[in-house]
User: Fold this.
Amino acid sequence: MSEDKVDKSYGLDPADAELPEPPEPPEPPESSEPPDPPEPSAIKALDVCPNCGSPMGGADAVVCLRCGFDLKSLKVIKVNTGETVEPEPEPDEPDEPAAPLCERGRADPGLPIAMAVGGLGLLALGYLFGAAGLVEAVEAVEDETAGFFATLGGRLGGLIKMLVRTGTLSLAGLGGLSVLAHMLNTRIGNVKLAAVRMLGIFAVIGLLTFFNADSQTLEGAVELVCLALAFVGLATVLFRLTVRDAATLMGLIAFAVIGLLLLSALVMWAAPQPG
Assistant:
């Protein structure tokens, strides 16, 4: 028994019975990548660089001659223009504070105190006993005891003047040290120790006044040179200064002493005279 062939055309023309074409796939979504840069002809002429703000070379300029920004690729490229661009200055680091001029050492305050006591003690004995070079010459009298007491007032007066002079120089030295510390952008440190050191320096320097010579000019010149050298040496050792700074300190003290002398002369001149 044969099977009948089933007609699946459903009475339509076989050509019309073909299946319809499948629909076209949907377009892919737009990519997140940036679009291609426009052609140079499509770039709008700019007056300034959008990267650094410098003026462009002209309407046809595509690359900034200062920072190398390319308007076509929108990137910075290296350009050899021959121009020198100064680098931005780096912030200055704060300087470390300098050490104070007067710090306590192993020999402090014993050494400067010994210098002050020893120097002033020898000077006091020299003035009391009329050492040569310290006390002005007085007429000798027949009786040595009478002569000693006759000149005792002058010797005590010289001793008092020496003490006042040494104290004044020490105060002037302390003031000069303060000015020097300001010039060196530092500070004095231990002020009491600095005052004791100054007193010790001028007490030792005062011993040079024992030098006596027949010529007053020669004596004054030798004492002046020795005083300057002794001060620079002692200031260098006690305050750990350089020779230049010690010489500067000596000059500051000299100016201070001259100012004090002028001030005292002005006060004496302005003071009413008795009688």
Q: What stands out?
A: Residues 152-183 form the longest helix (32 residues).
